[in-house]
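Table 4 source record.
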Amino acid sequence: MRAGLVTAIFFALGAQAQLIPSGTPIPHTTLPPVVFINGYQFDGCPTSFADTFGVADQVLQSNGEVSLFFNTCSLPSTATIEDLGASFATFLAGLKYTDGTSVQQVDVVAHSMGGLVLRCYLSGKQDTAGMFQPPAATLVRKAVFLATPNFGTPIASLLPISIEQVEEMGSGSAFLFDLNTWNDAADDLRGVDAIAAAGNGGTGLLTGTAGFDDGVVPLTSASLRFYLPGRTRVLPYCHVSGGGLVSDVGLCPFDAVGIADIDSAMHDSAQIIVSFLNGTDAWQSVGTAAENDQFLSVDGGLMVAAHAADDSNLTINSASAFPFESASQKLGISSDGIAYSDQLSAGATGLSVGASSVNFSTSVNLSSGGYQPYLLKPGPEVAGVFSAAAANFPLELAPRMLIAIYGSDLASATVSIGGSPLYLYYTSATQINAVLPDNASGLISLTVQNSDGQNMVNVYLDAAAPAIFTQDSSGSGPASALKASDQSLVTAANPLHPGDSVELYATGLGATSSSNGFDVAVEQPIVTVGGVACPVTFAGAAPNYTGLDQINCTIPSGLASTSSAPVVITSGNRTSNTATIAIAGP
């Protein structure tokens, strides 16, 4: 498969490169245009596309795509990464095809800091700490991150310069903790289909471990494990090609090949980009999967912040980790008072942290394969907010949704949005079930409060985010479904037949409008059973149950007998978990 791919790429290299100059109308192609974003320029501005990405524009011609360039040098060096994210939003909004229509979808390839620019755009991160204004539509279909310091780089604190962009990329920066916890204490990249390439070609001088960095970024920081497992490939490259500053200080060999400096179709990054954007799985055989890498398979990174009971920031002044069956390790502490380590043994890890006048002694179950942000605080703490029916990805909720709030010290707590209390179904020390309001949208702040303190997290509400309730509460087993004819539960012993009307119970269908005495979903969903459309006759709020949704649909003919036909709900641009229902064939 890879040989055929490379042959096709070589064949196309003889054609003229299609790097579209800024402001020039873009020709229509089968696949979306690809926007390249470069990183911080240690050698200074101005710079060109080829300085970072080599002949990548020529390579992409074989993929039926044109290339565009968002140059981080287009703003002065005083610009923050947030400023660059806002400028990227303006750049995307101005893209036009040759027929005058606006470009509605692009793919993105980002190197180093360029990946943080993209993440700032997707989250709408503002210069003010903790402030986000995410765009309603991201316009990004797929993204490839090349050596992005998602959780920082130690080199930032070693450079004898004071530049905001560099300081924001420093290990343990408040900027990075904010970015990695902006939505439900995490970052889901707004659900954009994404992969990453991390380099291990550094000398090890940066991290003290050869093979654990690309000379600038540690593997755990470049990994996309925070987004999804199985999306990071480790390549034998350095952050940039040898011969420059990184080689001069001994971080990479002088003959090193840069992870983004695509010099031919044989370059591993070129093969990953072409395969991923073209929708094939060839990228999964390039390099090494993070799960099989000698370090990422057993190690993780950790970033720790501390808050007081009232959720105000505390400055960490001492921090140590005690990995299971490993020697204790002091964590680095940034100038922002956040503790961090690029490399800890995964698994149960004890933490001893001193922050202002508060001392913490706790443990965290550290995952291998990437970094993990972690908040320490007394009083109520929210670990995550999900649909009560099933875990959702991306991390989006919907108006009127029945949600489950997980965390600690939640007993006797109230939950509010913008000062307005939510209706609560259930409360305990570790879980609260509540119902979101029917008039909320976008990014909102949810606060949990009791006599021990409070904790606030952001949650993102889309127009709809359907989730099916299941009988075993797993989110993937038999659906909570009734036969409309007699209200009996659908089971393997009581299957549905073609032509039967079934009542599916879900949450997350979004806002409703009144029609004939019922609250009908404004965003009407589509239901499939066994991959075949199940015509919907009703979708909206289930009568007398706040937060619960009901969909009635008619089982199609032609389905084979099975106790586990997959059932899926799609509403707007979001798809539910996959549950099952029993079908008796004709």
